[in-house]
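Teaching note: in complex prediction, the entire set of molecules is handled at once rather than each chain in isolation. The prompt given to students was simply: 'Predict the structure of this complex.' The entities are:
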Amino acid sequence: MKALMSLGALVGVVGLLLLAGMIFDVIPSNTIRLVEGYMPMQMLFEVGCYVLGFTGLSYMLNAMGMGIPRFWQGIGFWIFFLLYIKYRVYPPIPFSVRAMYGTVGLVAVLMWVSANEEDWKKFKQPILNVLDAQTGFNKVLRYVYLVALPILTWGFSYNAMMPKSEEPIELRTVHPAPPASTKVHGKTYVLQTSLNPYRVNPEGKYDQEYSNSLIVEQGMGRLMKPNANPWDEKAEGYLKYVREGGEIFFQNCHFCHGDNLNGRGLHAFAFNPIPANFTDPGTIAQLQETFIFWRVAKGGIGLPNEGFPWASVMPPWEQHLTVDEMWKVILFEYWHTGYYPRTWD
Amino acid sequence: MQNSGTQKAGLVLSIAFGAVLMTVGMEIPAFAQGGIPEGFKKGELAAPPSAEMIEAGKRVYFTKCVWCHGVDGAGDGPGADRLWPRPRNFNQGTFKIRHTASGELPLFDAKKPVRGQNDLFDTVTHGLPGSAMPPWEGILTEEQRLQVLAFVTTQLVKDRSFTDKQSETQTILNMAELKPKSATEESIKRGAELVVEKKCIECHGLEGRGDGNAFNLKDDWGFSIQPANWHKCWNFRGSRQDPYSVVNIFRTFSTGINGTPMPSFADNTTIDERWDIANFVNSLCERDEDGKPLSIDPLTDKPKINFVIPSNMVEGDIPADIEDEAWKNAPRRYVAMGGQITHKPRNFVNRIDDIWVRSLYNDKSIAYLLEWDDRTKSVAEGKLPWAPTEVNIDIQEQEPTTGEEGSIAAKQNNYPVYNDAIAIETPVKWKELPAPIKPRYLFGTNEQFPVDIVKWEADGSIRAFKGTGWDKDFEERDNYEEHLKVLKSEWKNGRWYVMIERPLGNKKDQDYDEDTFFEVGQYIPTVFFAWDGHNGDAGRKMAVSAFYYTFMNPPIPQETYIYPVVIAVGVVFLEGWVLTRRANKKKGKTL
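The expected output is the structure of the full assembly:
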C-alpha cells in the first residue's frame, strides 16, 4: 500500500513539475504538449492519473506529518485544473470553453469537500476562522480581504469593460451533410451507390478486401506493407493506381495538405483554419469515399449553405483534374494514412 | 537572473577555454593547424550502416520520400517540377547544411542520432524551412529516420561515398568547444562593418533582405537561387526549428552551403569575427515592439498570427511619414501570405510570403501602411496587354510534369516582368452577413455580396474595383479613385513601403452598395493580395492572405469608468452585510 502511494506521490510531483515547465516555457512546447490528434479521453485519463497521484502525495505528506488542510487541497486542485487546461494543449483552448470546464471543475471540487458533514465543516473552518477572529493574524487577514476584494473586483471589471480587439470566435461545420448526388464533368454520381473505380484487384474487379489488405501499416511512421510497394514495376491493379494517385497528390495537393497528409504543407501557415489533417482519425477515416469525392470535386466554393462560414480555400478540383485523377488521389490518401473508407453498411 | 547565470557560466568556460588554447598554443602555432581552418578539427567517416538498416530504410524511402526525391534519388519525383527550390538530387552527394568544411560530405552516423553531430539526421528531423521539406520528427521514429538515411547515403548518393575513408575527408566544425559571444552592441556593430568588408552585402543586399544580384545566382545544377533574407530567420534552411539561434548562423557562415554560391568563410575570418557577424545577422531578424524574438507557432514554424489588425485614431490628417509617432505607436501585424492555388493560374511558388500591416484612421478616412520584402522592384515595360479590370488573364500555370528544363525552378529568372502590386479586399455588405459568415475570399461571392478591392500597382496607379466572383472581371469604379490616396510608395533595398488612404465609407445614410463602410469598433473582414512582377504575377497568379479583421479602436466609453466603481461599492456593502450577519449570529441574535 505504502509503495503504491509513494508511486502515486511520484506521479503527482512529476506531473506538477511538467506543468510548471510548460507554464514557464522551460520545456520545449512541441515535445511535451498535446499538439494535435489528441482525444478528449486522453486529457480525462491524464487528469484521472493526476488525481490518483495527488491522493498518493497527500497520503505521503500526512504520513510525514506535513498534511495539507482540506481547504487548501480543494483550492490547490482547482487551480491545478485551470492551469492544466490552459497550458496542456496547443493551440490553446479558447477562454469561453475553459471557463465552462473551470466551472465544472469547481463544482466537482465542492462536491468532494462537502461529501459528508465532517469534511464540509473542515473545509469551512478556515473561512469562519478569518471571519470571526478577534485578534492576531486572521484579523489582519480579514481587513486585508475587506480592502482587497473591492479593489480586485473593480480592477477585473474595468479590465473586462475596456474595449478589446480579440479575434472573434468562429464556429464552423467541419463535415456538412452531402447532397444525394453530384454532377462532375457532365456525369451524375449518386453518393450512395458510386464506387471508386480504381479500388480493384489485379483482375480488375472492385475488391475492398484486397485493397484494405495493402494499405500502409498503422503505428509510428505508417510505412507501407513489406512487398506492397506501389513503386514496384510489377505493381498491378490497386497498388499501381495508388502510385498514380500519389503522383497527382504531389503535383497538386501537398502544397496545403503536406508531404505527410497532415495539413502542414508549404502554404498551410497562411491559411485559417489550416488545411485538413488526413492522418487525424476525425477526417477521412470517418467518411465515405464518395463524400471525399464530392468535397474534392466541388471544393470550398461548393459547400452547401449549412457549411457556413465558407472558411475553405479548397479548390473545386473539377477545374484542375479529371474524374479518374480525383478517384486515384482519394485512393492514395486512404493508402498513405492507413485508414479504410467508411462504407454505407 | 538567468542572464547573469549564463554570463557567469560563460566566463568560467571562456577562462577554461583560454587555458586550453594556451597549452595547445605552446606546442603548435596558434593559427591554423596543418591547413585546418580555425575552429575545425579532423574527423573520420562513421562506420557504414548494416544491410538490414539499408533494407528497412528503403521501405521508409518508398513510402515517404520517393514522391519528391524520385526513384533514383535524383530529385525528380512527381512533385519536383512544381517546386522551387527543387528537391535535393542525392546522386552527387552535395548537401547544404553541414558541420564539415566546404565541399566535404555532411556528418552522418547511422548509430548516433545526436543533435549537432549528425547533419543529415538533423535535416530530416527538423526539415528545411522555406522549402517543401517538412520536419519528420513525430512522424517517423528516430530509428526510421536513421534507416532512411542509411538507404539514401549508401544507395542513392552515387558520385561520392560515405563509406570510403580513402577518398573522403572530414574536417568538423568543433561547435562543442566554441561558445557564442554575447550579442553586445559592440559585437553587433562590428558585425555590421564586417558584412560590408567581407562582401556579404553583394548578394544579401544592403539591408540583408537578399536583394543583391537577385535571381542571377545559380546553384550547381544551374537553377536560380536566391540569397537568404536575414530578416526572416524562420525561413533559414539551417535554422533547425530554432530560428533566433546565433549558433546556426555561425555554422552556416563557417562551413558555407555546398552546391550554392554561398562560400565558407572559415579561411578568411577569425572565430571572433564570425560570432560578430552571426550576432549582427541574428539581430536583423524581425522582432516585436519590445525587441523580443517573435513567438514561433510550433504547428507551422512561422511567427504566430494575430488575425486582428487594430487601427488607432488620429486627430487631423493621417501622417504620411512612417517615422511619425502615430505610425510608430500603431501595432504592427504579421500577415502570412500563401500562393493562390485555388483557381487557375495557380501560383505554386509565391515569392512574397508575408506582409507587415499597420493602420490608422481619422474622422474621414482609414490608412494602411503595408511593408513587404520583395527582392526586385518590378515595373512592366510598356503597356500591359490586358485591361486593369481583367481577371481571366491568359497566363499559363506550371505544367505538372516537364522534366528539369521546363520545371518551375528553371523559369525563375526569365518570367516576363509585370507590375509589383498589392490589394486590400473588404466585403461591401459585411453587416448583412451574420457574424461568422464571410464572403468568398477570392473576389467576392456574387452580385448580391460583392467585395470592394483597392489595388495599387508599382507603375503608380491606384484603382478601386467591385468584385463579384472569382472568375468575373472586375468593375472599375471610376468616380471613386479620386477619393483614394497613395500617401507613400517606395522600394528600398528589397522592401516595399506603401501607404494607402481610403474613405471610411458612406456614413450618412449607410447606403453601402458599392464601397465598404468602415465602422468603429466592428470587425471588418479584410484580405490582402500581393503580386511580384518578376515572378510573372498578374491576374489570379498572386499571393493571398487568409481573412484578417480590421478593427478600428473605439474611444473608451464613459461606462468603462463608472460601472466598475458601482460594482466595487456593491462589494463593500455585501462585505458589510456578511460581517454584520456573522457578528449577530455569534451574539445569538438572528436577522
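Point out the following to students. The beta strands of chain A are 181-184, 187-190. The first strand of chain A starts at residue 181 and ends at 184.
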